[in-house]
Write a structure and sequence with these properties.
- It is built from 13 helices and 2 strands, in the order H-H-H-H-H-H-E-E-H-H-H-H-H-H-H.
- By secondary structure, the protein is mainly α.
- Strands 1-2 form a two-stranded antiparallel ribbon.
- A hairpin with a 2-residue loop joins strand 1 and strand 2.
- It is globular.
- The two termini are 37 Å apart.
């Protein structure tokens, strides 16, 4: 609980500030629209949490989101009957990308920063090669319903977000979650205690790939088909996780706080937009948050673990 209070306190302040500028925000429809808009990033942050808490990074999720949307539109091409088979294929593809990231990182000993950066470039290049920079095809109405439809007054994206959040919390409270945290805290000690470190990290990358797939499905629903739909989302997801207090070196953090960090980041961007501040400042904000998080993490290291001058 103590890990989540600070970030949700900041979120509450930002939500109040938004409501002062835009009173419509406090109405149910206004708040649900905010939650609907934030859902893809919050889901991405949940997936990124599992990778970061294990001591790794996943820079490929933004490109994977774009690939999922582009592939989905090309294969469905407006055919309603193809919706569910393509959705299943996209889920398998996201898991496969996560599996490749995990295997290359853990078994081939390639640093995850390099592995996922390479995957980001591979996916971006493949999308451009396949589309020529102009995605073709169209998503069916059934596909788009996940991002733009609703069950009564509640958007499907919000319901999916709640389901993903509940699943993520359940995983962190199970042995798997404790195994990941132990791996990120001290890989050698975890291995000596019987933890299958490689398998845990591979599963973490697969969860990240699955989260990117779900986020892509939602974004395809209300943002449409674009070769830039996932651009920059990998950095937003990492920023959200560290904003939620998750240690970049792994071993410490809460998935609820990571998701709260994503909501806080979305609220901050919303407030900046309401004040007419340039969207380019978003990158500056993300950079400051990441640098500050690393600095705070370094200050928290026990004195005996700090390098000597």
């Amino acid at each position: 609980m103590r890990r989540t209070l600070p970030i949700f306190g900041v979120l509450a302040v930002l939500l109040v500030a938004i409501a002062v500028v835009n009173p419509v925000f406090v109405e149910p429809a206004g708040f649900l629209a905010f939650a609907k808009r934030a859902a893809p990033l919050v889901i991405l942050a949940a997936g990124q949490y599992f990778v970061i808490v294990s001591g790794e990074f996943d820079l490929s999720v933004g490109s994977l989101v774009t690939a999922e949307v582009v592939i989905g539109a090309r294969l469905i091409d407006g055919n309603e009957a193809a919706t569910w088979p393509v959705l299943a294929l996209l889920i398998v593809f996201g898991l496969l990308v996560g599996l490749v990231n995990g295997v290359v990182t853990t078994l081939l000993k390639v640093p995850s920063f390099i592995t996922t950066l390479g995957m980001m470039l591979v996916l971006s290049g493949a999308v451009f090669l396949w589309t020529g920079g102009a995605p073709r095809g169209a998503l069916s109405q059934g596909f788009r319903a996940f991002g733009r439809g609703s069950l009564g007054p509640i958007p499907w994206s919000v319901l999916i977000l709640l389901a993903v959040g509940a699943a993520a919390v359940a995983l962190t409270r199970a042995n798997f979650g404790r195994t990941l945290a132990a791996t990120g805290d001290n890989e050698r000690a975890a291995a000596l205690s019987g933890v299958r470190v490689a398998r845990a990290r591979i599963l973490a990358f697969m969860l990240s790939g699955l989260a990117a797939t779900v986020a892509g499905i939602l974004l395809g629903g209300f943002a449409g088909v674009s070769a830039q739909v996932g651009q920059g989302l990998e950095f937003q997801a990492i920023t959200a996780v560290v904003l939620g207090g998750v240690a970049l070196g792994g071993g410490r953090g809460s998935v609820v706080a990571a998701m709260g960090g994503a909501l806080t980041l979305e609220a901050l961007f919303t407030l900046l937009n309401l004040y007419g501040i340039s969207g380019a400042l978003e990158f500056t904000v993300q950079g400051v948050i990441i640098i500050a998080a690393v600095a705070v993490g370094a200050l928290r290291l026990p004195l005996k673990l700090r390098p000597s001058a």
